[in-house]
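Practice problem: META domain-containing protein
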Amino acid sequence: MHGILPSLLVAATLILTASCQEDATGPDDLPLLDTHWVLRQVDGKTALLTEKGAHMPDLTLLAAANHTRGQGTCNWFGGSYALAEGTQRLTISEQGSTYINCPNQNLEATFLLTLPLTTHYEITGRTLRLYDDEHTEARLTFEAETK
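Answer key — structure tokens:
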């Protein structure tokens, strides 16, 4: 009987540890899908709007049909994404967008060029971080916006 209890405790610990590693989001973390994410940082620097009337870029990954949608500083965009089940692997397609000629679209261009480089993500609370395989720091950081 003395050998069974320690064995059960070890087995339970291993099972709990393994299940924690599969899903790195905590109970207070927002879901990746169907959440409206607003850009806050690009490569660790605060995203700033330089033009009056510009829109802070945002992104929503729609659970239905694996579509993306959002708005850059000026233009609307959309595309697709793929998730590897049970991991935090995420790929995002190049995004098709409208082509309204707005002044100084540097932030929008950087945002739309960086999205398809995404290989994985992390969510902590209301913050989404997108990473590529080339950098250890998040390329794009978003905050959830509730409407």
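Discussion: Residues 5-23 have pLDDT under 50 and may be disordered. Students who identified this feature from the tokens alone can consider the problem solved.
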